[in-house]
Amino acid sequence: MSAGRKSGWRLALRYGVMAVFAGLYIFPFVIEVGNSFKSDPAATAHALDPIPNPVDLTAWKQIFGIGAAASVTDFPRWLFNSAFLSITITVGRVFLDSLAGYALARLQFHGRRLVFAFVIATLAVPGVVLLIPKFLMLKQLGMFNSYQGMILPMLVDATGIFLMRQFFLQVPVSLEEAGRVDGASIWQVYWRIVLPVVRPGLLTLLILSFQGSWNEFQFYEIATISPKYFTLNTGLANIVGGGLSAGNQFPLKLGAATLTVLPIAVLFFMLQKYIRPGGMAGAVKG
Amino acid sequence: MSLKDKPVAGTLDASASSAGRAQAAASPQVRSPRRRGPQGKGAKGTPPRQTGTGRLRRGEHLFGWLFVSPALAVLLLFLFVPILLALYISFTNWSGLTNPLSSSVKWVGLANYKTLLSEPGLYRQDFGTAIRNNLYFVLFTVPLQTGLALLLAVVVNNKFLRAKGFFRTVAYFPSVTSSIAITVVFMFLFQGTGVVNTILGAFGVQGPNWLYDTRGLFTLIYNAFGVNNPSVLVNHGFLGLNLWGWVAGPSLGMCVVIIMLVWTTSGTFMLFFLAALQQISEDLDEASEIDGATPWQRFRRVTLPLVRPTLVLVLVLGFISTWQVFDQIFLIGPLNPATITPAYFSYQISFQDSNFGAGAAVAFLLFCLIVFLTVLQRKFIKEDLTQ
Q1: Is residue B290 part of a domain?
Q2: B118 partner at 20 to 30 Å CA-CA among B56, B176, B248, B298?
Q3: Contacts of residue A279 in chain B, CB cutoff 8 Å?
Q4: Which residues on chain B are in Cβ contact (under 8 Å) with A161?
């Protein structure tokens, strides 16, 4: 039975590696949450203790504007901005990306190939080199430092259009033909027949859009200048940069970081099956 | 954040096609308004047709353009036009305050590019340093994240192993969270009296002040062997940085960014490899085991050739995204000039020095590099397809 024993050892080794790395992936988050419940000196002196002792709520009171410690920062506003922008952008993206995706997948119109080639080409444009161009454009259009300026450029993304097109291509044409024969207009076929079929695709796009706009940092950073437009990310980056307050204030920063991560964590654990990057490999091959 | 965006972006088509396929299979049962028997039956089993010959195409031109025009307008207005404008700006002395098309903005020709690439001065030196920083960042991050991802995938890919789903979730989670939040946490972990130095202290090692430390990793090794500022390297240089500076390796501050990025992305790439490994038939693996192949031989001869396309993909996605690292440097860069990358340098000279002309020139050079890498990627992947 030496073979069985050998594979038993190997399995144990696999479990060992898995446990160590699971620990490494979780550990920073534990430290993050734990230290947000400490006082400033305690977080500096005993950073490694995951469990705060004693529990100190100063940072969290500051975040939610409770008591005397408040008012250094305007977290409720940041939270509102993050939520408002992400929800607006997500709704817009799901609607506009799927519309364009449907047209590119199914409607025969002059210039379709050109439009599709353009969408594909924009996929290759690295986001980080667009910072100056986008700032330039917002200035030109008089939308710098405004909600419109933060929302409009984010409202469409080429990846989303491409994703939706792929989903629509999978829908059998016969389904639409049935609708057409019944006298439904193109809009009705799209809205009532095809869109319900691609619901998993819409959900995937919804999650990716929400995650993307919630985590967006660089674009909001260049699109605005007033603190009233801070999101959790830009606001947090500003505290770290020392723009708002002095000292190291790690519990506050870690608390704000926790708040930034939390909604995404909830979304991620609830809707995990719709976020599957692993399928990529197969898609690229075929 | 750029680094995450790319893999996720690439990811899209993946989930798209897999979920889409599942959906297509289920679609005959989908309700449609006023569906009638015959059509419903006819729909079943007929393969999807790309172009219907006898179909009514009335209004498709109009609706096609109606459907794409909002998206197209946004992409043109905030992607295409701005790129052209920025290219123009890179040949001017625009300060960011006036209208860039007004007459007060002067056309300066290639002056901005020259200050970055050929004229001795602070900009050229900073640009050279930024390239050096990013080059080491790429050279360390890409192999580490790819290697770790492949290792973990091979370890986890075992049918007798439990808790795989949990591990996948845990490994993937960092890459869906905010890069700013993660950077804040890592700045806390690596601060002078932070978690990492506490752990190192337990082993009797006195950790450096990571974030602020500009010393190169290789320089420390050279110093340990007694080599310091050899004149042959100090007296020659390139892009305003002497050769001793070029061979310094990543600064200790940059090491933190490397560790952070590997931690963030390895889980995602592990999922890429797992998907590829799951397509390898177990018969093949078992056959090679019965043939007496050692685990290493099986990895080299069976696993590696089969995950090759994924490996190419992961490497190239890595090369593209690591040249765009920005958010992390936005927080760490001001503390440590030896972590500044071209992407951040472009932001810095534009928005802080009001030198948008030079900033746009940096962005455009970076743009060319990344587009070159992307074209290379498409070529590589096509080659893999034809093989």
Answers
A1: yes
A2: B248
A3: 11, 14-15, 17-18, 275
A4: 71
Structure-model confidence comparison of residues B356 and B54, the more confident one: B356
DSSP state of B174: G
Asked if pLDDT for residue B44 goes beyond 60, the answer is no
Query: From CA A271, how far away is CA A180, in angstroms rounded?
Result: 34
Taking the Cβ of residue A112 and every Cβ of chain B, the question of whether any pair is shorter than 8 Å is answered with: yes
CA distance B29 to chain A (A): 10
ipTM: 0.89
Q: Is residue B1 one of the residues assigned to a domain?
A: no
Q: Tell me the per-residue pLDDT of B118-143, one tens digit each, with 9 for 90 and over.
A: 888 899 999 999 999 999 999 999 99
Whether A222 contacts chain B with CB within 8 A: yes
Give the list of residues 6+ apart from residue A16 with CB closer than 8 angstroms, or none. Answer: none
Contacts of B327 in chain A (CB under 8 A): 217-218, 237
pLDDT at residue A247 in the model = 59
Cβ-based contacts of A264 with chain B (< 8 Å) = 176-178
Structural domain that includes position B294: 111-214+251-380
Q: Where are the domains of chain A?
A: 3-64, 75-285
For residue B136, give both structure tokens: 């080491």
Structural domain count, chain B: 1
For residue B238, give the DSSP letter: E
How far is residue A235's CA from residue B85's CA, in Å, rounded to a whole number?
29
- CATH number of the domain within which B260 lies: 1.10.3720.10
Measured CA distances, B102 to A132, B82, B94 (Å): 18, 16, 10
Task: Note every long-range contact of A238-241, with CB atoms under 8 Å and residues 24 or more positions apart, other chains counting.
Answer: A239/A73, A240/B183, A240/B184, A240/B187, A240/B331, A241/B331, A241/B334
- Tell me which architecture the domain covering A75-285 has in CATH: Orthogonal Bundle (1.10)
The two tokens of residue A263 are: 């909604």
- Alpha-carbon gap, residue B255 to B141, rounded angstroms: 9
Q: Does A225 touch chain B (CB under 8 A)?
A: no
Give the pTM. 0.85
Residue B251's beta-bridge partner residues? Answer: B216
Q: Which residues pair with B238 in a beta bridge?
A: B241
Average pLDDT over chain A, rounded to whole?
A: 86
A residues 126-165 near B, CB within 8 Å?
A: 126-137, 139-141, 152-153, 155-156, 158-163
CA distance A218 to B348: 12
CA distance B158 to A99: 42
Which pLDDT does position A152 carry in this prediction?
A: 96
Collect all residues with Cβ–Cβ distance below 8 Å to B148 and sequence separation of at least 6.
B262, B266, B270
- Above 90 in pLDDT, residue A273? no
Q: Give how far B120 is from chain A: nearest CA, Å.
A: 25
